[in-house]
TrEMBL record:
GO terms for molecular function: damaged DNA binding; DNA-directed DNA polymerase activity; magnesium ion binding. The keyword Transmembrane helix does not apply. It is found in: Cytoplasm. Mg(2+) binds at residues 9, 106. Pfam families: IMS, IMS_C, IMS_HHH_1. This is DNA polymerase IV. Keywords: Cytoplasm, DNA damage, DNA repair, DNA replication, DNA-binding, DNA-directed DNA polymerase, Magnesium, Metal-binding, Mutator protein, Nucleotidyltransferase, Transferase. It catalyses: DNA(n) + a 2'-deoxyribonucleoside 5'-triphosphate = DNA(n+1) + diphosphate. The active site is at residue 107. InterPro entries: DNA/RNA_pol_sf, DNA_pol_Y-fam_lit_finger_sf, DNA_pol_Y-fam_little_finger, DNA_polymerase-Y, DNApol_IV, IMS_HHH_1, Rev_trsase/Diguanyl_cyclase, UmuC. It comes from the Bacteria. Binds 2 magnesium ions per subunit.
Amino acid sequence: MARVIMHVDMDAFFASVELQRHPELVGQPLVVGGKGDPSQRGVVSTATYEARVFGIHSGMPLRTAVRLCPDAVFLPVDFTAYRAASARVFEHLQQVSEAFQPVGLDEAYMDLSHRQADAVALGAQLKRDIHADTGLVASVGIGPNRLLAKIASDLEKPDGLTHLTADDVPGRVWPLPVRTLHGVGPRTAERLATLAIETIGDLANMPLARLQAVFSARHAHTLHAAAHGLDDRPVQTERVRKSIGRERTFQQDCRSSGRLAYEARVMLDDVHGRLQQRALAARTVTVKLRYRDFTTHTRSRSLGAATQQIDALAEAVEQCLFAHHLHRAVRLLGVQLSGLEVAMPDRQGG
Ligand SMILES: [Mg+2]
């Protein structure tokens, strides 16, 4: 069966998270890297598109970046903030498919082979949901394998949504520089240049035997296959789930705290059923509310130990709910269980 793989890649992720905290910097060239002091050692982690215009890119020494654009604003990296933003983004991915493979904080692959027909619509919806919830922009690529999905997500960055099929490879992939291919680093690119290979198309048209004269048999084969858009690496999903949850958007904003409490309990019962099915226990309960103005707030309660007891979980849900401002109109309600552990059947029940 043909596969459908989606690659989600956040645009200028670290810099975008910083811009949310420093909205006054929007539109200015911004560089996030090291300690944020370009007179010290350190490299660029992320630069906004306004800074990239000056030739600044990830991995470049901060000193070079400040020479290219003396007016750029430099900020230190703050992984705590990026991890928190990343967790929120990945929550949305999990709503689409439980089978996703994170790559660092701002990228992930998903296998959507079971949803062939609506993969593009799912990608569009995912981009909208991530943006509505976090204010961050994602580029989404869809393809028959990881290689093409990743190339696709990069093709129309930022804010891209690109679908590549095997038929698109000659027209859209072959003109790209060979460095675009996964696994082609600077050293491989240098050796390819000795064969006059600059683009992926050059590589695709090179007889395998000539590649084998320069590279090991295995490497030559991988390069040849990649240039033809072939890649059979699976999406490797994490074996142990980190959370189980449900969300619901109301047809009409909900203004009644009684109704919210009722809906939260219905959702908890559903989530609890899945917890039991998987023989797991949960330590932390999180209730998420999105208000009419699209601001989203979450409240969590952690129990002393992971449990499967519905009463204890329900009480924690109620505590979370009433820690929210229930006088506001609510458009989305979410209930999530995390801190999952394998349940101890002899000590825990219903
Ligand atoms: Mg990215």
